[in-house]
Structures are given as C-alpha cells and as structure tokens.
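Bug #77: duplicate submission created two jobs. Keeping one. Sequence:
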Amino acid sequence: MGLVTLALRASFLLLPERIQLPALLRRALPFVPAAVLTAIWAPELLLQKGVLYLSPYNERLLAGAAAIAVAWRWRLTFATIAAGLAALHLFDWLL
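Kept job's structure:
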C-alpha cells in the first residue's frame, strides 16, 4: 500500500511534461481533499459501534452540526475546530 501511494504521488513529479492528465481527472482533482475529509469525519459522527445512530442524544452528531455551522458562517479553521471541541464537551456533559 505504501509503494502504491508513493508511486501515485511521485507520478505527478516524475512524469515527463508531454504526458498530460485526462481532462476528467484534472476536473476531479480539486474535489479530492473534501471527499477524503468527509470520508474521515462522517463515520465518526453518524456511527456508534458500527451502527447508524441518528438521535438527538448523539453528542458527536450535535457537535458536528455546530462545527459545520461555524465553518459555514465564518470559514475559519481554528474557529471551526474550537467550536466543535467545545460543543462536543458541552453535549457530552449535558447528555
């Protein structure tokens, strides 16, 4: 797996300039970071012990919603992280 990752990352640096990425791939690349981050945090918010847990008592989901609201309103990474952590601790204490 590590070699595959290295080969993929190195390919952008080591391929000759005459080799161009397909247009579809070039259009898709800007969306990769958002897709990867979503794949990381979505299961943490929505699953509990491997089961979908959509409940008003899911403190992670509530804290995630608060963090998303802060990110949408202010677009500041530090504020989003701080609000998410504060909300997680608050909801964990309340619920």
